[in-house]
């Protein structure tokens, strides 16, 4: 029987992409490779998320396929290779932009004010040639590579527009009589060809700077680990070693002000550690021997020694970085529509440009050829697939990064887009609304003498019990010496019994006492009723004759739960609490937190059935749980949110994982989703509107009505600014509060 090979997902850097159509070309070439299961290109981050089976993968062939259409795929030294390439590309782009501007300024001056000076056309030809053929040569090279493969992108538009303007101007400079003999003036557009390239280069320069800012959150996370650490040998000798050499089990020294290098446990020293960069919690956490610490967190006060438990890619920080990178590379559903539009965008624009040229040539009269040529060039220049391509991924990247900085991990773009539509949110009680750690909140004994004589027997019984609540009693009685048990027996659903000090004892619920004919004093019964009315769990301790003590146990509500629930309800979201506890306990928790909708006594299947019931009512349902016990309901929900703490977080289970167990992160996550989706819509609106308005104006539709015509140089500036404006709008997310 054939077994399915496990697949992996890897982000590979892609170089040479200039627009959304480029991303489409790279994606289609990779998806055509037989050993690739799926490929999703992120134009904003210049990367592609490839899913493949490791045993069958052939990255060398992928690289060759990408290079055939004018791009490159970095398959070795990916992180440093991409950084080196981006640095070199930015420096080269900056140099080309400066030179293009320096050549273009005198061109504009001559073209606007000194057109009739001697040899003006020849001087402009000399000034424009380095810009078009040298500084802008990559537009023509890339356009040719695309054409060879039957594809087109932004480079095609730039090469066609500037190439036609330049070639037409050269012809008119060399053969002015051709037009004079026909009663026409031989116009030249050298300044338009050069300035368009200068503006596009300037726009690309600004765009690269802005795009670099969209991934700053990931770069910040990557910079949280030190390059070297102090390792302590068995003989106590301290040695400074590279972080990469640290092995599981090594003991490391972390001094005040240093970042924790790996995940591990304290084996010596005490301190306070700032975990805000991972959990989003601003308050430093006290650490002592036995406490867990995580890579990237900041040691504040004292020095401590830790034993490495997770190193390298296994640390929590490394997992977070990997998950966020994958999420940033994923595509929102709306992006699929945008990709289709971008795929046909360039051919449609070329068609519109040719139609505009033909229309002016036929119906434009004496200036039809000149106006048609201007319209053709301007349409090709102003059309901008870049703005469309950047609209969604830049917002997604910033949104994912913002979430990671606040301890909110979002699985993919689809999850982020779904979360803003949440109408009903279901909370598990234990460990979600409450701390999930039962603790004794009250203790009453029949007499002080009984407490002194028999508390050791009570402790001995509870130490042997496997019931979850027994741990709370043991913690309450710590410091007391347990008696030696001669006999012990667990009674399912009731409690435990045993013998010590030469007599029998019981510990459990009231039913256990009643079944054994044990008397309960009025004073203890009143205390028990009081605690039961407050929804506490009550445990009795008795000998064979009478009840000796009663203890109240409660699962404390987290500090932020009432505030978070109020925020969610203020956002118009219906909040439900589902629990397996009894109705009285559930009602008490609901009263303390402000929850209006409660379902008690539910088994895991019942929780999933309730999710289905809400979905049948047409509601978008989110389920919040620990990602394990509530897996059935989490899987059924439209949006699943796992509450986690440290390395126990269920990253692969839920669409969203909150690293902190604070419920207040849930409204934060939903607000982040709403703001990100709003930003995507704004970006797409302006990108579409820009092209819908800009292309007809460039074609000259306003000339017969108002006489207004758009200059190719202004079209180039508008095209460059459209991309920059989309990225800048996405970057506003970084400054917003959630």
TrEMBL record:
Assigned keywords, A-Z: ATP-binding, Cell membrane, Membrane, Metal-binding, Nucleotide-binding, Translocase, Transmembrane, Transmembrane helix
Ranges of residues in domain HMA: 8-74
Annotated membrane topology: Multi-pass membrane protein
Listed name of the protein: Heavy metal translocating P-type ATPase
Segments passing through the bilayer: 97-116, 122-144, 156-174, 186-206, 341-363, 369-392, 684-707
Lineage summary: Bacteria, Pseudomonadati, Bacteroidota, Chitinophagia, Chitinophagales
Keyword presence, Secreted: no
Compartment annotation: Cell membrane; Endomembrane system
Membership in a protein family: Belongs to the cation transport ATPase (P-type) (TC 3.A.3) family. Type IB subfamily.
UniProt-listed Pfam families: E1-E2_ATPase (PF00122), HMA (PF00403), Hydrolase (PF00702)
């Amino acid at each position: 029987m054939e077994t399915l090979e496990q697949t992996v997902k890897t982000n590979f850097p892609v170089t040479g992409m200039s627009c959304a159509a480029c991303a489409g070309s790279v994606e289609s070439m990779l998806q055509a490779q037989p050993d690739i299961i799926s490929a999703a290109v992120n134009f904003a981050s210049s990367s592609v998320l490839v899913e493949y089976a490791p045993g069958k993968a052939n990255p060398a062939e992928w690289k060759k396929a990408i290079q055939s259409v004018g791009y490159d795929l970095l398959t070795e030294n990916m992180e440093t290779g991409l950084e080196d390439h981006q640095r070199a590309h930015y420096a080269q782009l900056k140099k080309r932009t400066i030179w293009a501007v320096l050549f273009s300024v005198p061109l504009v001056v001559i073209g606007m004010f000194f057109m009739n000076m001697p040899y003006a056309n020849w001087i402009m030809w000399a000034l424009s040639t380095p810009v078009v053929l040298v500084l802008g040569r990559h537009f023509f090279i890339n356009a040719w590579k695309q054409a060879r493969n039957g594809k087109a992108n932004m480079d095609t538009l730039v090469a066609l527009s500037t190439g036609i303007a330049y070639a037409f101007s050269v012809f008119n400079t060399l053969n002015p009589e051709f037009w004079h003999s026909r009663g026409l003036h031989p116009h030249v557009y050298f300044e338009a060809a050069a300035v368009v390239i200068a503006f596009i280069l300037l726009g690309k320069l600004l765009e690269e700077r802005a795009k670099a800012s969209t991934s700053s959150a990931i770069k910040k996370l990557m910079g949280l680990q030190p390059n070297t650490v102090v390792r302590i040998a068995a003989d106590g000798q301290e040695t400074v070693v590279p972080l990469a050499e640290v092995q599981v089990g090594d003991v490391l020294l972390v001094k005040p002000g240093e970042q924790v290098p790996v995940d591990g446990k304290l084996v010596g020293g005490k301190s306070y550690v700032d975990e805000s960069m991972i959990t989003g919690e601003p308050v430093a956490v006290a650490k002592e021997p036995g406490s867990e610490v995580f890579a990237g967190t900041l040691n504040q006060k004292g020095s401590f020694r830790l034993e490495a438990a997770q190193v390298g890619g296994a640390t929590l920080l490394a997992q977070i970085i990997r998950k966020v990178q994958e999420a940033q590379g994923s595509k929102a559903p709306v992006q699929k529509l945008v990709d289709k539009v971008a795929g046909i965008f360039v051919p449609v624009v070329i068609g519109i440009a040719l139609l505009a040229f033909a229309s002016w040539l036929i119906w434009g009269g004496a200036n039809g050829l000149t106006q048609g040529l201007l319209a053709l060039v301007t349409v090709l220049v102003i059309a901008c697939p870049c703005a469309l391509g950047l609209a969604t991924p830049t917002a997604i990247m910033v949104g994912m990064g913002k979430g990671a900085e606040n301890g909110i991990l979002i699985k993919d773009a689809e999850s982020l887009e779904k979360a803003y539509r949440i109408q009903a949110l279901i909370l598990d009680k234990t460990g979600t609304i409450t701390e999930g750690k039962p603790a004794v909140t009250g203790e009453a004994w029949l007499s002080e003498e009984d407490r002194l004589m028999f508390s050791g027997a009570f402790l001995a019984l509870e130490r042997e019990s496997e019931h979850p609540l027994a741990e709370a009693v043991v913690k309450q009685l710590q410091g007391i010496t347990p008696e030696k048990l001669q006999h012990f027996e667990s009674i399912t659903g009731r409690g435990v019994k045993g013998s010590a000090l030469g007599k029998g004892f019981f510990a459990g619920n009231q039913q256990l006492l009643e079944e054994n004919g044990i008397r309960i004093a009025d004073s203890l019964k009143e205390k028990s009723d009081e605690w039961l009315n407050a929804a506490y769990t009550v445990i009795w301790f008795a000998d064979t004759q009478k009840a000796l003590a009663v203890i109240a146990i409660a699962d404390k509500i987290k500090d932020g739960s009432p505030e978070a629930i109020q925020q969610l309800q203020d956002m118009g979201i219906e909040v439900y609490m589902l629990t397996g506890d009894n109705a009285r306990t559930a009602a008490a928790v609901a009263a303390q937190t402000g929850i209006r909708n409660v379902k008690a006594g539910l088994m895991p299947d019942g929780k999933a059935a309730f999710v289905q019931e809400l979905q049948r009512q047409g509601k978008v349902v989110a389920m919040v749980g620990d990602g394990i016990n509530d897996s059935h309901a989490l899987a059924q929900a439209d949006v699943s949110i796992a509450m986690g703490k440290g390395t126990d977080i269920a990253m692969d289970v839920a669409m969203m994982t909150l690293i902190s167990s604070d419920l207040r992160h849930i409204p934060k996550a939903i607000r982040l989703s709403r703001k990100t989706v709003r930003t995507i819509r704004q970006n797409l609106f302006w990108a579409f509107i820009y092209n819908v308005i800009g292309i007809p104006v460039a074609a000259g539709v306003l000339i017969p009505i108002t006489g207004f015509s758009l200059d190719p140089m202004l079209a180039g500036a508008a095209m460059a600014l459209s991309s920059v404006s989309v990225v800048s709008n996405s970057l506003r997310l970084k400054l917003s509060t959630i």
